[in-house]
Structure formats: structure tokens, C-alpha cells
Amino acid sequence: MSVSKDPRTHPKLLAAVQKEGMHETTFLTPEFTPDAPKESIIEFCSQAEKGIEEVYRNLDYTVTHPSLSRPIDESEERIVGPDGNEIKILMYRPAGEAEPIPALLYFHGGGMIMLRTDNPMHIAWSKALAQTGLHVFLVDFRNALHPGGLRPFPAGLNDCVAAVRWIRKHSAKLNINKIVLHGESGGGNLALATALKANSEGWQDEIDGVCATDPYISGAYNMPSEWKLRELPSLVELDGYLVMCSSSSLHARIYDDFGKHARDKLAWPYWAEEEDMRGLPPHLIVTAELDPLRDEGNAYYRKLARAGVSAVGRVSLGVVHSGELFLRKAAPEIFLAHLWDIKAFVDRL
After folding, report:
1. Which of the residues 122, 128, 131, 204 has an alpha carbon 20 to 30 A from that of 56?
2. What is the rounded CA–CA span in Å between residue 92 and residue 104?
């Protein structure tokens, strides 16, 4: 089965995928396994990043709707990270909003290793979130893949943590009244991991909520097929539905420093125990029906519920990985539903 032949695929999304040729993304299919030389893996991921960036640049993110007409003020802040590095934070706030409003820290997707923070999809998503009445902070964390040398876990996570703590410290000046973490795919990993780290260090009260969309959180690509089919069957059954697990396994190698952190709950939150989750703030976990990552997100939601965390889980039927975001023009109703679900979650906190 494939995304083109699966009758569950939303027809509008299928038409968009076929129009853009995304059902034949051969640049995402490696010709070697995760035990290949490090140099080969780095080169493949670097080329894949270029291909994905080109796809994102060429897509139309325009959605016309009365709820998206609010003007937005844009600004930028630079803070010092944990390693003396500079962290850029792009900020989007409803124009003229004088009252304190919730802050949404957005960590972008890209498997924690790639994609520009300021690419068109991330900017468009940030602005749409701001138009719902949120103060959005788009955090330029360190990707693990970098031309100047690899920056694996925990570099990017530490940048996200630093951003949260800086924003909380300056909440009065920033005119915000809540802090909610959000991310899709790899950004979902970072949002969940940031909350877990806060919980383990005792500052979880600085975070009011967490929303993760299609989180990339298991890194379980080297597990036997029998285990995958039992625990995370979507890794097998939906492999190739826009996301190639062979490619994702290479991203995982770069992020966790070639297996050094393969079961670290802060690198891969799927492996967190219920005890690690007790005391976490409320969570919203959204997964896509036709995403290889679907079952790890669903499993995380169930574990949160067993740990006594206030958690809501939702599966987007007929949708592929991150389809609500990058295919918004094709199916605006799905995009808008996802957007306002996030706002409703924030408002309930």
C-alpha cells in the first residue's frame, strides 16, 4: 500500500501530493543502512535537507479566512545559550494587543537535525498561530546537522530549555501570562523532551502546557520487525507514506550521536517511564492517521494518561505526516481545525 493507493488518504491531500510529486521523493531514500560510514550518512542527510527545503519554498501557504485577517507585529530577540552560543528568537504578536496573552514557544520540525527556522512554512505557521491571539516565539535552536560540524543531542534541547527559561524570566516585560510549548515532528520531540527535563529538574511549573503534533520520539528503527509490529506497527505499515523510515533512521543516528543516546528519554521521549511523567503540565498530542510516526505519538499519549497527566489525544483521519501544516492550501478546513484546536487547548489552561 502507498499514500497514492490507500483509500484512507484524504482526496484533497492526495491531489496536492501528486501535483507536487511528493509521492515520489526518491531523494529521501538512502541506498545504505544506518551502520554506513558517518560521512555517508551526513552527506545523504545534507542532500535530503536541500530537497525538503526546496519543496517547502515552492508550496503556497495562503489560506484566506476571516479568522486569519488580524495584523501581526514581528520582532526578534537574541539570547545567550548554554554553551555561550547565540539563540535567535523570532516573535509574532497580534498588533496592538495591550493585554497579557499566552506565549506559544514553537520548535520547528526537521528531525531535530535540519531545516531553516525561517523557512516559509515555519514562518507561515507562526503567523497563523499569532492571528488566533497568541504571542508566538519561533526558537532558532541548534540543528544537529550543521556545515561547521555536528551538534548532536543535547545541544538543540538545551537551546529550547534556555528559551523557555528566558521567556519565563521576562514574562512581565514580554506581556505574557502563560507558556505553552509546541512543535511538529522533530519539534514535537523537543517540546516533549523540554517538559520532561523540566519535570526531572523541578521547574515544570514554569510550563503551563505542551502541544505536540506528529512527534518523532522513538528512534526505534533498529528494533526487530516483530517488536515494531507489536509495539509501533505504523513504522512498518505506513513506511513510505511520504516519510521513509530508512531516511528517518539516519536522522536518528545524527541526532543521538550515532547511538550513544538511543534509549535516553530526553533524546527520545517515547522511552520515558510513567514515573518520569507524573507532575507534567497538561498535554495535547495530535497524530496523523497515515504517518509512520502515528503509533509512537499515540503510545506517548496513553502513557501520559496512565501517569495521571491531564492529556488529550487526537488522530487526524486521512492526513499524512505534518499534512495540516504544509498542505494547508489544499485542505484549509483541516489546517484551520488543527490551528484552532491548539488555541482552544491553550485557552483551557
Report:
1. 131
2. 10
CA dihedral 39, 45, 46, 50 (to 10 degrees): 160
Whose CA is closest to 167, among 131, 125, 145, 138?
Answer: 138
Per-residue pLDDT tens over the stretch 9-24: 999 999 999 988 777 6
The alpha carbons of the chain give a radius of gyration, in whole angstroms, of 19
Please count the CA atoms within 13 angstroms of the CA of 279 that sit on its side-chain side: 15
CB 49 within 8 A of CB 114: yes
Give the pairing type, strands 101-107 and 176-184.
parallel
Q: Are 200 and 277 in contact (CB under 8 A)?
A: no
Q: Considering the entire predicted model, what is its pTM?
A: 0.97
Q: What is the pLDDT of residues 271-312, one digit of tens each?
A: 999 999 999 999 999 999 999 999 999 999 999 999 999 999
Best CA proximity match to 218, nearest among 260, 272, 284: 272
Check if the beta carbon of residue 264 is closer than 8 Å to that of residue 271: yes
Domains and CATH numbers, the chain: 11-348 (3.40.50.1820)
Q: How far apart are CA 320 and CA 9, in angstroms?
A: 8
Q: Buried (b) or exposed (e) across 116-141, using 16+ Cβ within 10 A?
A: bbeebbbbbbbbbbbbbbbbbbbbbb
Cβ within 8 Å of residue 172, ≥6 positions away: none
Say which residues have a Cβ less than 8 Å from residue 273's Cβ, sequence separation at least 6: 265
Q: What are phi and psi of 16, to 5 degrees?
A: -70, -40
Task: Write the DSSP symbol of residue 118.
Answer: T
The 3-state DSSP class for residue 127 equals: helix
**Residue whose C-alpha is closest to residue 132's, from 68, 85, 185:** 68
Question: C-alpha cell of 308?
Answer: 495521571
Q: Are 321 and 185 in contact (CB under 8 A)?
A: yes
